[in-house]
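Quick note —
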Amino acid sequence: MNANMFKTENVLDNFKVEFFGLSSSSRVEISKKGSLTQEEVNLVIELYKRANSSERQNPAIRLKALGATIVPPDNNLNWDYIAGYDEVKRKIRESIILPLKNPALYDSIARMTRKVFESNRPRAILFDGAPGVGKTTAARIIANESEISLVYVPIESIMSKWYGQSSQNLSQIFDACEDLGDAIIFLDEIDSLAGSRDQQMFEATRRVLSVLLRRLDGIDAAASTVTIGATNRKDDLDHALISRFDQTIYFPMPNAAERAAIFSNYARHLSEDECSHLGERSDNLTGRNIKDICEFTERRWARNVLVKKAEPSAPSFDFYRQTLRMWKEMK
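Predicted structure written out below.
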């Protein structure tokens, strides 16, 4: 510290400094008996600026400290990875990907049609569907195609046992994403984060919901961030929160043809008829279930190869059929 900047004689007399560590953030409280002198006020301000300048300039570090993950791009992940769902893919392309890739066009149309300019690009989309139908994978593909960062926010990174900390965590995540530039925030299991106020609600949840409502469509609304919320219990969400989403995209359970296509993704050596057979007998299963079944089949087959000391080969159709039957019996 430059001694010429402040009068340092007795600068710490009667000072009380307390350090608090709460969840993923921390704070320092400085107090003194009596009034702070102007030199002491300047010192506190300068210390605060120096302590926070490096963190403010690096949103990636701040997001990591808050428990959020910047998902790295995967060039091998595209829409072919999700079999079927043609209508879902069409809605995602039209409502999310095209506006993200062509912002100037959408803004120019809005300027030609509105008395007062407002962006017509969606800022918040809700993905609704059962677990395992591809909501998270779709978010990753959107980020890949749009060439912007995907920030995955698990619920446990937001919630805290300390009063007021949960809403503060969520607000800091939005701030960091804004500093990051164009980004997609993916809020998984948003129903656990912001349920309906018609039901009994804890004060911490109410404060988190308030932050969400302001950030999605309010005075503090995010300007350069698209928010995707994922839920399998849309009816449990607060009505005001649902109204903040520009669109809800529903991910249905895959039909027989789509299940057959999913099997062909994970068992490409099987014939079309064999995949169709498996697809017809796997009703009420999601894409994740089918992936798990195929992985289980491969592990069973590997053990069979080891026991017989045979050459490596792909599992037979009968093994997939047996595993599917075993899976349904276990469930």
